[in-house]
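# step 3/5: fold
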Amino acid sequence: MTHVEETPLIREKHKAVWWKAAAVATSTVLAGVLGMAAPAAAAPAAQQSSIASPTITFVYGSSATDANLWKGVDLSCTGAFLGGGGYVSGPESQNAGLSQIAPGSRGGAALDDPRSMRVSATAAPDTTPANWTLHAYGICAHGLPGVEYQRDYVSAAGSGRGPLTALASCSPGKSLVGMGGQAFAIPEQVRLSTVAPGNGVVIARVTPQPNPTASWAVQAIAVCANHNAAEIVSGSTGVDNRAVKNATAHCPAGQGPTGAGFGHTWEAGNLVQSMLIPTSDRLVGVTRTDTRPVTGNWGAGVYALCLPT
């Protein structure tokens, strides 16, 4: 496992991979595609026009390349992690998707350490498992005052329950600047299906696989600070039965993404978020079916939190 704070040269090296896998999405608002109510709004913090914009850098790390069903990458930076994402590659990547985007965490533990971040992914069982790799990205901010991590954890006791949703809210007086979410379960039995922002809140949702045999849980992470609230932008796909869909959320001119999220409409548990990549001015996402076909129409999209850079 390796990690390095990304330079412009490293970013250019990976852009070819991002653009090959992602296309510009339609302009339909993601909330409409998902057909779900927006998260309940917390009281908005006062806008603070005199606060300087933070400096944003991207941190990259990668896992081992093997056939294990679970992979995790711990990232480090000298500032504060606000969010991130990653992508999967290799022959088994069709079955693998992101299961944890956890700023302020290391090794799966909620440390509330701004210098730490964990990204993980899981793959569904396969009769002929093959190698795959997780590539992780973290968004690190320097010069952002009062960063805090608010978490909401919701669990299901025993098998047989449906999707779970958690909602994390910023403390009074602080504004939402980043986000994350994570699924807790036996790797092949639960999928992280939504990480989405609202006004001072973040929702995270997990969807179980058919006939789960163990308990599972979900955690939403709201990253908040003494700063103006980040602007929420989204990009979405069409609603049909295609196996792979791409979405891009563009930040306004002069702004860049500080938080990354996604969501989709299908609740059967066989969609994976195989890519969620923040760049200097946009967020790129790819959602796909695993080896089991989706029998109906579905839509997907991405959310970006944007701040002036």
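# step 4/5: annotate
Helices lie at 8-21, 30-34.
# step 5/5: archive (pending)
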